[in-house]
Amino acid sequence: MQVSDVFRFKNREIRALHLTWIAFFITFYVWFNMAPLASSILKSVDWLTKDDLRLFAIANVALTIPARILVGMALDKWGPRRVFSVLMITMAIPTFVFAFGDTREQLFISRLVMSSVGASFVVGIHMTALWFKPRDIGFAEGFYAGWGNFGSAAAALTIPTVALTMYGGDDGWRYAIATSGAIMGLYGIFYWFAITDGPTKDTHKKPRKATALEVSSYRDLGLLVLFTVPMIGILSILVWRIQGIGYIDTLTASICYTAIVVVVVYQVWQVLRVNLPTLKKGVPKDDRYPFSSVAALNTTYFANFGAELAVVSMLPLFFQETWGLTPVTAGIIASSFAFVNLFARPMGGLVSDRFGNRRFVMLSYMFGIGLGFVLMGLLDSTWPLIIAIAITIACSFFVQGAEGATFGIIPSIKRRVTGQIAGMAGAYGNVGAVFYLFIFMYVTPSQFFFIIATGAFISWAVCFLWLREPQGGFDDEYVISSVDEAIADEARLRRETEADLAVIFAGSEKVALADKGSGLTVTARFKDIDDLRTALARLGNGSAKSAPAE
């Protein structure tokens, strides 16, 4: 795939790419619409403090973690078109609640629920993987993520103008946030009708079980359990912070901690329930995949996207205090970290496509991140400002490129469970953000950069030991196993059976075939007893004719 191909709007896959990155852009615009309006929010109400807004900032990334896990499961079951549309429409509701809330509890809860919109990233990753071939997936995913991620920078640049100029007054921020939510909801409706899950009906491959990620060995099962715990357990940091500010008492905090433990135990039980029977039976050799690669990419996204979310939140103040800049100037300089997304992330995917070795590209980017943050940790007021800006942009280049390289690998690991793999890796990006933002409360900016650099080097070591070059990562088509074919055959047989049932129960209002426990249940609804008796008579006479599969 060439860079110029993104202008070939007549191609269906290019249209799908543009429709999807725009959806992602809008959701990220909404997700980050609070920080640029922080001062306006504080001025318009006298019952909020800076500590409240800092808490809202952590809440803004908290539920994204479990949301990305749940969305990953939903993707594999229902496909990205439905999931993306429903996510945008439903998340417009807490956006309106935040816009017009009149207590800090309302703002906190709505912001917490609204953080789920950050799971949109995973949806678009899966949609893009359905439309593009393995050899082109790196650039396509990077372009989608880079331009969509720019929504956060666009919010910082435009939403204050909308609030202050277009609406004005003390409540201008409320109408600006509400407007962004309304646009997201409307685009969600449009997206439902504007796109399909891939170029053909059978492009979307469903897993055997969508409740937990499938693995191929007992070692991988242990590793999956190990990586499952932090995705929910990290929320205990948010509970601790909420209690510290006084939003909840000790009893409520204890209930929240207990709930987190229950969810972790339940998630681990689901992992065991889904995988133990399959592992006992034995996984066919051609259906196995290395979960160690997924684990390695979890650490990369923790170290790159997690670092990006954390650094973006503290960088303006770092420049302002270190070099004595005005808030506006510091904000403009700090925004360069997000602006790099426009070209660095697509380039990371493109390099991954062109170099011919996705593992080496991933290792190179992670090492570059480590060096970049080491240099940022050395910055102080004695450094020329122009050099500091150059180092910041260079570091951002490696951070965004590593994000593109991460999702240049994920779609080729295991086609059938791409949604769940992407959901897990994406969740670890937010785990990293919550962890780093928590650490930042207790360290200086220089120490903070060194800690992030250490995380990048640890991820590099994990990738060196665990990450494998994906099978068929540069082929024209994704690798399909015997289990994939069996699932496809089962789906085809199911459609044929449903067609036969429609003939048998002709005259019924609805015929449904559903999985219930270990068996199947057939449901038919009739207008009256005469229609039912007619259908039973046909069934007794064996008059059903096989209908062609659709």
TrEMBL record:
Species of provenance: Pelagibius litoralis
TM spans (from-to): 21-41, 53-71, 83-100, 112-132, 144-167, 173-196, 217-239, 251-272, 325-344, 360-379, 385-409, 421-442, 448-467
GO BP terms: nitrate assimilation
Annotated keywords: Membrane, Nitrate assimilation, Transmembrane, Transmembrane helix
Topology of this chain in the membrane: Multi-pass membrane protein
Location(s) in or outside the cell: Membrane
GO molecular function: nitrate transmembrane transporter activity
Protein name according to UniProt: MFS transporter
Gene3D superfamilies: MFS general substrate transporter like domains (1.20.1250.20)
Lineage: Bacteria, Pseudomonadati, Pseudomonadota, Alphaproteobacteria, Rhodospirillales
